[in-house]
Amino acid sequence: MRRSEIIEEIVRRDWLIVANIGYPARELFAAADRPGNFYMLGSMGLASSLGLGLAVSQPHRVCILDGDGSVLMNLGSLATIAHHAPDNFCLIIADNKVYGSTGGQPTYTGGRTDLAAVARAAGNTQVSRVSTKSQLARALDEHEGHASIIIADTDPGNADVPVIPLSAVAIKERFMARLMGGN
């Protein structure tokens, strides 16, 4: 599965989306830019934490598109997610076993580290591993209404997409307007 297939699946739903820095955010922007997308800029490892805060503070379903390398930088977030477990929270970890935005260096998930096992050990109960778009769609449907973590085995590689032309302030302001019921 490619990361673009994850993006195709999540944008079909009317959810708020938080995308990890680098290529995940750039690919989401290129595929389906909208005010309900929050693109992380310059804060690797924090998409899941920001998404969790968003989920506990408002009722809309929140989907976080994160990467294995980013989650490895903030494993403590998995315990915090398990503790709060808001029903409107979904973390999708695109596990391509590399740091794709910084040159393709291998992550530990290509070796002995199993993020699904780590998430379960942290106390998360709705954890799935998928490797196809149909499995992803099924997992998203089955986990609707539950705090969930989905590890999506993906191929390494990035789409040829431009840099996001929005400033951090512009991203924040239009996202906040969406939360407040505007556009």
Please give a structural write-up.
The protein is 39% helix and 19% strand. The strands form 2 sheets. Strands 2-1-3-4-8-7 form a 6-stranded parallel sheet, with helices on both faces. Strands 5-6 form a two-stranded antiparallel ribbon. Helix 1 (3-10) packs across helix 2 and helix 3 (47-57) runs parallel beside helix 5. It has helices at 3-10, 23-32, 47-57, 68-72, 76-84, 115-121, 133-142, 168-179; strands at residues 16-19, 37-39, 62-67, 89-95, 98-99, 105-106, 127-130, 148-153. The chain is globular and about 40 Å long.
At the first level of CATH, the class is Alpha Beta
Order of helices and strands: HEHEHEHHEEEHEHEH
Q: Give the CATH H-level superfamily.
A: Thiamin diphosphate (ThDP)-binding fold, Pyr/PP domains
Number of helices: 8
Report the radius of gyration as a whole number of Å. Answer: 15 Å
In short:
Helices cover 39% and strands 19% of the residues.
Helix-strand blueprint:
Blueprint: H1 3-10, E1 16-19, H2 23-32, E2 37-39, H3 47-57, E3 62-67, H4 68-72, H5 76-84, E4 89-95, E5 98-99, E6 105-106, H6 115-121, E7 127-130, H7 133-142, E8 148-153, H8 168-179
Parallel strand pairs: 1-2, 1-3, 3-4, 4-8, 7-8
Antiparallel strand pairs: 5-6
Helix pairs in contact: 1-2, 3-5
